[in-house]
Structure formats: structure tokens, C-alpha cells
Please model this.
Amino acid sequence: MSTSQPDASRLPSDDRATPDELLHDVPAETTPEDLVLASGRDITPSTLAWAERKLASEGRAAFDKLLP
Model:
């Protein structure tokens, strides 16, 4: 008989934390739009210009400063 209960082996375990390298993985190819969204801002011409400047001066480290 089939049940609608999920398989217990597939349920997430509460005793494991997600590793930092998975939480803070910044893709190699990032865009100004990615940085704007990571900052929690709306995509506008001024926020895109801000993100372009940040990426030009800081590179991927700009994301490290935004992520907890």
C-alpha cells in the first residue's frame, strides 16, 4: 500500500548545519545585477552603477562583505 508520507531517509537532518562553503559560494561569473540583489536592493540604474563600481574595485570580495 502506498502512502503520502515522505521517505524518512530523505528528510533533512536537524543535527547537521550547512557548510559555509555551500552557503557562501559566489559563482565565478558574477554580474552587477547579482551584487545588487545580494545587497537586498532593487535593480535600478543607480544601483547597477554602484555595483559596477564595487565589482571593479573589489571583485568577488564585494560579495564577501555583503554575505553574513
Remarks:
- The chain has four helices and no strands.
- The radius of gyration is 18 Å.
